[in-house]
Design brief:
Helix content: over 70%
Number of strands: 0
Mean pLDDT: 90
Shape: flat
Strand content: under 5%
Order of helices and strands: HHHHHHHHH
Low-confidence stretches: none
Distance between the termini: 22 Å
Number of helices: 9
């Protein structure tokens, strides 16, 4: 029995159950349903954390050396960010949108072939403190972008009904569009800082240590730069042009789709030095 996989399976089912309860809370609006959803997310988070702890014990290295392991890190950080948002702003209803995104990430990791999930010795190129710092910082950025993606989707839905001034019992339960827009911006702002530091700066330092070059136009490096420009354009347009609302939400969504391709698409479609599975 590989205990890390057992705990991850537990996290999978608890995230699924939490998603159902949060959606139920949005539809039925019973406090006990929402509270149950929150408890289930916390339990799922603990299970995912235990999965990472046992993965570290089983492999004798930090658990983000391949696609499967780093997905557990993404789920870990995104859950922390979501719970902070829920408790800080008392917005349990957004769990109906954000927690299913976390579950989809869990499902994606669980769907990988066993050869990716099975603990493996650490690739020599990854045996560096710079690699650990690079991945950890970049995934904090990914979590911020993922949160902004979910908030952007909620914003577009809420804003549409606000513009039409058409009452809807479900839409009326969502936070105000202006608040959603502001929270999405803040998520991208802190995500961008960590993504810049992790994916570009620390990534370049690690690349130089591992391969003797700070930048080699590897597919993942190139797509990291594309993703960075999307979010840089978002922040620039918001600060200098006052872009808010739908334009900002569309860029937030496009940016996260680019992030998904950066992490998943490049690994399978555009193999390079970073395609380590």
């Amino acid at each position: 029995m590989i205990l890390s996989l057992m705990f991850f399976d537990m996290a999978f089912w608890f995230y699924l159950a939490a998603s159902v309860f949060y959606i139920g809370y949005w539809v039925i609006k019973r406090e006990w349903i929402g509270s149950t959803g929150t408890v289930l997310v916390i339990v799922a988070f603990v299970a995912n954390t235990m999965s990472m702890v046992y993965r570290t014990i089983e492999t004798d290295h930090m658990p983000w050396a391949n696609l499967y392991e780093s997905m557990t890190l993404f789920i870990f950080i995104t859950t922390i960010a979501y719970l902070y948002l829920e408790f800080r702003h008392k917005m349990k209803v957004i769990g109906a949108f954000i927690v299913p995104i976390i579950f989809i990430a869990t499902f994606a990791a669980a769907s990988l072939q066993f050869k990716y999930q099975n603990p493996q010795p650490l690739n020599p190129a990854l045996q560096s403190i710079w690699f650990k710092l690079h991945v950890f910082s970049a995934f904090i950025g990914y979590a911020g972008f993922g949160l902004a993606f979910g908030l952007g989707l909620i914003y577009l839905l809420k804003n549409k009904f606000e513009e039409l001034r058409k009452p809807n019992v479900l839409i009326d339960r969502l936070p105000k569009a202006n608040l959603l827009d502001e929270l999405s911006y803040k998520s991208i702002a802190w995500g961008f800082i960590f993504f810049t530091m992790g994916a570009l700066v620390l990534g370049a330092v690690w690349a130089n240590k591992a391969w003797g070059s700070y930048w080699s136009w590897d597919p993942k490096e190139t797509w990291s730069l594309i993703t960075w420009f999307i979010y840089a354009a978002y922040l620039h347009a918001r600060v200098t042009r006052g872009w808010r609302g739908k334009k900002a939400a569309y860029i937030a969504i496009a940016g996260f789709l680019s992030t998904i391709f950066l992490y998943w698409g490049v690994s399978f479609v555009l193999p390079g030095l970073h395609a380590y599975g």
